[in-house]
Specification:
Order of helices and strands: EEEEHEHH
Structural class: alpha+beta
Number of strands: 5
Oligomer: single chain
C-alpha cells in the first residue's frame, strides 16, 4: 500500500520536509516512488502540484494524518481534518469506576487502612513492595551456623 507522507530533510534543529509517495513498509528516510514537493514548517511553505497529488490519491495512495491536514489547509483536497495524534490519558481523567463514585471520606479511610496494613502507594497509585530484610529471622532457639562467634 502506498502512503503520501513527509520525509525529513534539513539541518539539526531546523527540519524541512519533502512530501513523497512511498511504500508503507519502506524506511522513512529510504526509497520513495515520487517526490511531490517541499514543506517548510518554519515559514509554512507547502508547494505541491494539486493534479499530481490527486492522481496519486486516485491510484490508491493514502495520505498520513499530518499530510492529509496539510492538504486540507492548502485546499488541495476538500475534507475535514483528522486527528493526527491523541494525548495520553491521565489516570485522574480515566473512565469513572465504582471506586471513584464513592465519597471522599471512604477514599481517605481506604488510604488509612492500607497504610496500617503496610501497603504504601507510589507516585502514580502503584503499590510499593515491602522492603526485604537481608537477615533471616531467628525465633527462640539459635540454629547452628548462624552465629560463629559463640563457637570460638
Amino acid at each position: 500500500m502506498l502512503r503520501i507522507r513527509l520525509q525529513r530533510r534539513g539541518k539539526k534543529n531546523f527540519a524541512t520536509y519533502r512530501v513523497v509517495v512511498a511504500d508503507r513498509g519502506a524506511p522513512i528516510k529510504g526509497k520513495f516512488v515520487a517526490d511531490l514537493g517541499p514543506y517548510n514548517p518554519h515559514t509554512d511553505v507547502f508547494k505541491v502540484n494539486k493534479e499530481v497529488v490527486l492522481e496519486w490519491i486516485n491510484k490508491g495512495a493514502k495520505p498520513t494524518a499530518t499530510v492529509h491536514n496539510l492538504l486540507v489547509d492548502n485546499k488541495v483536497i476538500k475534507a475535514k481534518k483528522v486527528t493526527s495524534w491523541r494525548p495520553k490519558k491521565k489516570e485522574d481523567e480515566s473512565e469513572p469506576t465504582a471506586a471513584s463514585n464513592e465519597s471522599p471520606e471512604t477514599d481517605s479511610q481506604n488510604d488509612e487502612a492500607s497504610k496500617k496494613e503496610g501497603k504504601a502507594e507510589g507516585p502514580k497509585g502503584e503499590q510499593k513492595k515491602a522492603p526485604v530484610d537481608d537477615k533471616p529471622e531467628v525465633s527462640g532457639e539459635k540454629k547452628e551456623g548462624l552465629d560463629n562467634s559463640e563457637k570460638l
